[in-house]
Amino acid sequence: MLKYLHNIRWNRVLYLSLFFLGVIAVIIVMSLVNRKDDLQVCREVNIFIEGKEAFIDQGDISALISKSYGNIIGKPLLDIPLEKIEKTLKKLPYVSKATVHLDMDGILAINIAQREVVMRVINKNGREYYIDLNGLKVPTTLKYVPHVMIATGNIEEGYKNPLDSINSTLVKDLLRVTQFIENDELWSNQVVQVFVNNDKDIELVPRVGNQQLVIGTADSLDQKFSLLQTFYKEIIPKVGVDAYNKVNVKYAGQIICEKRGVWTFDDLHNPEKKVKNNTL
């Protein structure tokens, strides 16, 4: 008997015993944690909204969650459908991203990134919508009106569903023109609106002066705006801001100016002729 006991590998027995005791301890701890989770409830909901727009606020999100899932405060943590809440938030047309997290302290954290719009379209039938940075349509709301470029005139494309993509070349061109203007300090200060005339040409509505600034399509924008800059820097100082009715740069490398009234450059130096011709 003593010889049998001597042959037993006590180190191995000790390791096995410790292993099984560890497994039992883990099972006990997990059961206690699960029991705690079953009893723990949501104590607080924190809502964080990112972005420069203000289409939605914390009250809107809180009201939507309460309407869809009831009162979250006081609800057991295991009963809070995190994935469903995320999907509900992502369906909002003003939301680009949404994440929902729940920690062991019972705090529900909701992080939302709003869509950034760059243009407001009012089509020929009076239908309005915004276009965001990704070229998706966003509905207008009376709650918030962002300070963005407005496109009006002979625009046929309308609005059906939130986040529809642009489907016409014209509106895509309007978006390109708008973004070009917004990225240039000079033109963002000078242009207040873009307009589509009956020929489907894009025009710029200037802050100073009342002439038509026709650029046509969104091709060669660097060249076209360079020509317009030449017009404002070299021609306007000589003839006055209202001397021309229309300035057309839609054709490559050309500035075509249409006079307002009847006058010549000689008239600019002869006040009597200028009054007689009723120009400038």
From TrEMBL:
UniProt keyword terms in alphabetical order: Cell cycle, Cell division, Membrane, Transmembrane, Transmembrane helix
Protein name: Cell division protein FtsQ/DivIB
Source organism of this protein record: Sphingobacterium anhuiense
Any GO BP annotation: cell division
Cell cycle keyword on record: yes
Lineage, uppermost ranks: Bacteria, Pseudomonadati, Bacteroidota, Sphingobacteriia, Sphingobacteriales
TM helices/strands, residue ranges: 12-33
